[in-house]
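Check my protein:
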Amino acid sequence: MREGVRAETPDDPLPLKISKKKKLAAGIPAVTSSLKHGLKNMGIPRTLRTLTMVNQQSGFDCPGCAWPDPSHRTQFEFCENGAKAVADEATTRRVTPQFFSKYSVQELSQKSDMWLNKQGRITNPMHLKPGASNYSEISWNDAFELIAGHIQAMDNPHRSVFYTSGRTSNEAAFLYQAMVRSIGTNNLPDCSNMCHESSGKGLGQSIGIGKGTVHLDDFNQSEVILVIGQNPGTNHPRMLTALRDAKKQGAKIVHINPLPEAGLERFKHPQDYMKMNLSSTQLSDYHLNVRIGGDAALLKGFIKVHDEMGFFDEEFIQSSTVGIESMLEKARAVNWKTIEADSGLLESNIRQVGEVIARSKATIACWAMGLTQQPNGVSVIQEVVNLLLLGGHVGRPGAGFCPVRGHSNVQGDRTVGIWEAPPQSFLQKMSKGLDTEIPMEHGFDVVNAIHAMRRGDVDVFFCMGGNFISATPDTLATADGIRNVGLTVQVSTKLNRSHLVTGNEALILPCLGRTELDVQGSVAQFVTVENSMGVVHRSTGKLPPASDELRSEPWIVGQLASKILPDSNIKWDTLIGNYDEIRDLMQTCLDGFENYNERVRQPNGFLLPNPPRDTRSFDTPSRKAHFTTHDLPNVHPIDGRFVMMTLRSHDQYNTTVYDVHDRYRGISGNRRVVLMNALDMAQRGWKNRQIVKITSHFSGEERSSDGWQIVAYDIPRGNVATYFPEANVLVPLDSTADISNTPTSKWIEVSFSTDSSNHPGDEEE
């Protein structure tokens, strides 16, 4: 263990500034912010060139969210946060071997996450030797020899763990899982374990497929769109355009979230200014500020209203579903007093919206982490399914389920095999297609991988992208686990905290970004990705690589596999020399990828099969969609305690912090803030900027974090919100959702304390 390496995010030294929160998303401020970020990172010519290639058919897929592209694209097919993600990757700043000679890992760990990211692109493979405090340069061949030596020395392949972020291409992810399974393990945790695992489990049990069932065009045919536990204005800004267009077609939009969000209040598409259209669009017709964890009760209320009105799709229910009676019986048994208490909403407001949903002939339900990261994440998503099945809202134009993914290819990675627990049928077909014996037993997900590291059961931890230490719960516990590992490897583009909190020995392998030209065998290659709605399409990098030493992710995997598995039946060298060869192999191993190379060269790619959407058929034991029955969870903390949720700021992409501004919420300069209801503050005699210590409580355990400032905000009483990754230190490792094992970052029981030395707080500016 290297003494003095800080795992948690350091305190922000800048003063907290509070202003009035915004009600309009995008518009001129979004344009200004995008250009400012681009110019600071890339300069004028590079900014203009790069942004005109984002999400274009001949260009590259945005490294930001996974929202689908329209069939007919504009010249500027990106959002503010997408532009920032591109600029962040295409920056002209560099992290060289000289940089690592100057700074020890101890010194770097005292820097903020924002500072680390702003240093730029990593240019060379780097090696942190046992006992060393500074990385030193290493050749690619020596790095591969080192990794292969560690893996080949293991007496059990399950002592290795291979993590994947959601930005890895289909080709790289497929090769990666093929290598890992050829080594002899299914230890393939990924970011899905921490986000939409609950969606996959809930939908899989209910409708037989663990992904959404809508096209982008469905939004223009929908009568009601539910946006639940989601902040599109910051997390999925391109979705706002789809909602605006749906609104113009007459759709009613219902926003269900503890916090009001600017994107769902008013939206102004930046390109409208070029058309001399100065008006903005009010998106949400109804905002229900549900209590954290109260979504299950609210959905029960909607179902009760549906039941009372008798607006059912009887034909669909009779022919295509099972379990409705027990589901309705459970909903009928819940009284309105309980629903009001759990949801924090009035019966009259729930009935008003419930009647709108019941009358709809085409309803789409969208959701994100606000549902999936609750302790009952799987069951609450199944309540969403219950609600929509009542009206037959699946396999119909303008209707269906839409879990909104946050990483650009997180769905694609799962589709091609990044999964610690795939069905036996998937593994059998994979084994046959690869002509390789692979293990059939399930591997570790993220939480179980951390537990294994803490037990000392992991010798090699390999990360294909991402920032594991900052993305995971219980930061200090996770760090303790990582430090137990013999060798940790990070395939990365930018510097982050996971390069500093390491095993006994560590490697950084710098890779090409999504924006960069990938040449193999003197031929420019393209990769493919899958968006949130199951469309697989091309992505072709155009920019010169940030360094001559950068290598593509498929090349890294193929070269490494050749070292580890010299007798493999898989021809790694041939595959990485021409990505068409990878895709030819993929079509033999994966359902729905027939004629892959031909179909993906179509202008807009191709749509993967989806039985509930395509034919109203369901791959469940009964061959029908399942209504499910659930009790309401306990959402009431001990008296004096609050329920905390973590969220991200506007100038942030997942764990990457671009700047200390949350423009829409009117907060800047400091990220260690607690959003709290003003009445809860007044009850305790607190004003804005009151400094507090937060303590989380779980199963008799406590975790504490100091130096947080209170900010008054429109959030239900008894609820608070904080930013991640700063607040991840408070999320217990064992606090996970039933069935999915997803960390419960949206439901943590906390208390607050102050002392006489704390700043008394100031009035709002």
About this structure: Confidence is low (pLDDT under 50) at residues 273-278. The longest strand covers residues 701-712.
